[in-house]
Amino acid sequence: MSRSHEIAVDIGGMPILLRTQDSSFRQLLARRYAGFVDSSSSPRFAFDIDLVTPSPEMESDEEVHVEMQDGQWHLRRGDFRARWDPRAGQGSIRQSANPYSIDSVLRIVHTLILAQEGGFLLHAASAIRHGRAFLFSGMSGAGKTTISRLAPPDATLLTDEVSYVRRTGDEYRACGTPFAGELARVGENRSAPVDTLFLLAQGPENKIEPLSAAEAVRCLLRNILFFAEDVELVKLVFRAACEFVDRVPVRRLTFVPDQRVWDLIQ
Amino acid sequence: MTEKYIARSTAIAARMLGGEMMIMSAVDSTFFTLNQVATAIWQAADGRTPLAEIVARIVCEEFDVEPEVARRDAEQFVDELAQHGILLVSDRPFENPPVEAA
């Protein structure tokens, strides 16, 4: 019987145990999630990873599908197949030995976990400054990487691509993630209460403008990572977006791409 | 003219925030923000009250809209939401209306 190699990846205070028979893949995971590996906590969820030889079947362009069937989430994309039983806390992943597939599975699993507690993953850069977290949301080209690159030394970058928002009671916290964008820099594994969500736009001057609640919810929903084709989950995500907007200031931040924009973010 | 009855689907999520009613289809994720008149029609869509009565009793009286204009706008609004499965439409009252909370 071959030996199992384990690693607990803790993102957002939600450790997930990954098991593989392949020690070199475990090492790859340790490098990929450096800063987010936690051997002290008890993971709530565990996945067995079945590594397969790359084949045309596992390299198709099939888009991601996430469905609930018989109490289990079924996740599939061209490069992976996964199952996850949230009640048992157990799952399995079938993929080749690459970091991209497991990264996508983890993102999806975290969106499913967060939805149950009113949180979400967001297309947003985020940073902590003076003990508060600021989120900068927008799709590709909106300026997430730019604003991250311009961050002053006293700001702690949580991510330049995918922000992790947890809800505990009436408080929202932004947590660091290893999900990097163009900056190719893993975020710091820290968290802080969310101060403001900025919706990014680039323009001729730096300015912050208010948004109506409906516009804020509409923009937020556009940027929340969401994969499942499931009516109940859509309702949860909608509720999460509304309750976030009800409790956290959401503003439009138009900025000129230089350091002065951070003078507005205090 | 055929009577029309409307009911709120349960496959939606709705919420009043900042004085605006927001509705999202849980089927195709389309998002709508309703104005005051549309919100009033939405809240009255109990599956048992004819649309004509909703228009006459609520839209025309409370919002002071001409009956013909109110009827045309309401029909258009109902058709659009029905296309996304947000409102259910029938030519007879729903026996057990699948009504989502307004």
Q: Can you walk through the features of this model?
A:
The complex is a heterodimer of chains A (266) and B (102). By secondary structure, chain A is an alpha+beta fold. Chain A has five helices and 15 strands. In chain A, helix 4 (213-223) crosses helix 5 (231-247). The model of chain A has no long low-confidence stretch (mean pLDDT 93). Chain A has two domains: 5-116, no CATH class; 120-263, Rossmann fold (3-Layer(aba) Sandwich), CATH 3.40.50. Chain B has 102 residues and is an alpha+beta fold. Chain B has one domain (5-90): Arc Repressor Mutant, subunit A, CATH 1.10.10. Chain B has three helices and six strands, in the order ββββαβααβ. The model of chain B has no long low-confidence stretch (mean pLDDT 90). The A-B interface holds A 212-214, 217-218, 221, 226, 231-232, 234-235, 238-239, 242, 245-246 and B 11, 13, 15, 17-20, 22, 24-27, 29, 31, 33.
SSE inventory with pairings:
The complex is a heterodimer of chains A (266) and B (102).
Chain A: E1 5-11, E2 14-20, H1 23-32, E3 45-51, E4 65-69, E5 72-77, E6 80-85, E7 90-95, H2 99-116, E8 120-129, E9 132-137, H3 144-149, E10 156-159, E11 162-168, E12 171-175, E13 191-202, E14 207-210, H4 213-223, H5 231-247, E15 250-255
Parallel strand pairs in A: 2-3, 3-7, 9-13, 13-15
Antiparallel strand pairs in A: 1-2, 4-5, 5-6, 6-7, 8-9, 8-10, 8-11, 11-12, 12-13, 14-15
Helix pairs in contact in A: 4-5
Chain B: E1 5-8, E2 12-17, E3 20-25, E4 31-34, H1 36-44, E5 46-50, H2 51-63, H3 67-83, E6 87-90
Antiparallel strand pairs in B: 1-5, 1-6, 2-3, 3-4
